[in-house]
Inverse folding.
């Protein structure tokens, strides 16, 4: 290349850069404005969710044959060993602390928006069922659905005993040891040391597969319900409420398709969902839902399924 030609080339590059500069500036300002405009949204997204999202504790049922549950050892009830308390602590921290707080003060992050608040185990006042062992067992067995306390009757008896013993020995003021009379009462009502039979379970995912294979009608119903939900979630209030009450709408819908007894009414619906809320795709939030909203959601589901 001659020197003259090279200079011309340099000039050309310079002119190109200089003339594109205003455009570059416009693009940069544009990006800046977009960012500033969306600051609100970006900030909003970083706020923690206000309500408890139980998605992280949802797990499927293991396959289980119907069986007689191993009896709880009387010693476990009377004189809990350090190992039992340690098991109780581990289970409490994974299953209960989100609401009840790691120190049992009822101040877990997930319970912040609940009313009534999750129980503070350090306080003796205002228990719904009661602070004695029998009533704590009842609470775990049946839950207190109307107040947002779920049932944990599907857990092995030993784990339930372990959690109760952990709570009693670690958080509760002067919780009394169980007497023979207490144990007899527990046995009369719950066969706690005698063992009892437990129905078999199959995983929800397995149930979905089974529906798909064996029951064409239910499979069709489920498929059309899923697509109706996806279509209407933005413009139908009932659909929208449902969508926000579930961790996984496919699991929740298949659960509802398989068990039709919830159609008897709102209360039957809440009762059934609450029974195994850990695995049926619903969120705990459902249990504290406003009655009007519940009605809207229930009507929508009933018409859909
Ligand atoms: C979704 C939040 C949540 C989770 C998870 C939870 N609880 Fe609760 N629990 C509550 C609420 C809310 C109450 C208060 C109910 C009331 O005042 O009637 C409660 C109350 C209780 C009570 C007292 C009942 C009474 O007689 O007043 C016990 C005992 C209890 N929970 C044990 C547990 C154990 C053990 C676990 C873990 C296996 C657990 N809870 C998990 C929300 C929760």
């Amino acid at each position: 290349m001659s020197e003259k030609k090279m200079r011309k080339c340099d000039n050309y590059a310079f002119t190109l850069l200089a003339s594109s500069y205003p455009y570059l500036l416009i693009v940069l300002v544009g990006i800046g404005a977009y960012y500033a405009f969306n600051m609100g949204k970006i900030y909003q997204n970083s706020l923690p969710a206000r309500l408890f999202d139980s998605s992280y504790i949802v797990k499927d049922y293991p396959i289980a044959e119907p069986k007689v549950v191993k009896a709880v050892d009387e010693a476990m009830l009377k004189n809990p060993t350090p190992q039992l308390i340690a098991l109780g602590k581990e289970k409490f921290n994974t299953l209960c602390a989100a609401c009840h707080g790691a120190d049992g003060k009822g101040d877990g992050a997930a319970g912040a928006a609940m009313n009534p608040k999750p129980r503070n185990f350090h306080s003796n006042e205002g228990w719904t069922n009661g602070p004695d062992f029998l009533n704590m067992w009842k609470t775990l067995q049946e839950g207190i659905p109307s107040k947002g306390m779920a049932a944990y009757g599907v857990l092995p008896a030993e784990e339930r005993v372990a959690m109760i013993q952990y709570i009693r020995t670690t958080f509760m003021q002067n919780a009394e040891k169980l007497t023979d009379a207490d144990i007899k009462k527990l046995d009369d009502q719950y066969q706690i040391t005698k063992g009892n039979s437990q129905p078999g379970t199959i995983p929800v995912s397995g149930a979905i597969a089974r529906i798909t294979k064996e029951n064409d009608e239910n499979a069709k119903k489920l498929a059309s319900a899923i697509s109706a939900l996806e279509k209407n979630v933005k413009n139908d209030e009932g659909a929208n409420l449902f969508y926000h009450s579930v961790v996984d709408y496919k699991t929740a819908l298949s659960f509802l398709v398989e068990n039709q007894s919830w159609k008897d009414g709102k209360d039957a619906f809440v009762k059934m969902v609450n029974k195994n809320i850990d695995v049926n795709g619903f969120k705990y939030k459902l249990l504290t839902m406003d009655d009007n909203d519940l009605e809207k959601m229930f009507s929508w589901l009933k018409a859909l399924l």
About this structure: The domain at 64-198 is CATH 1.10.760.10 (Cytochrome Bc1 Complex; Chain D, domain 2). Residues 38-60 have pLDDT under 50 and may be disordered. Residues 3-37 form the longest helix (35 residues).
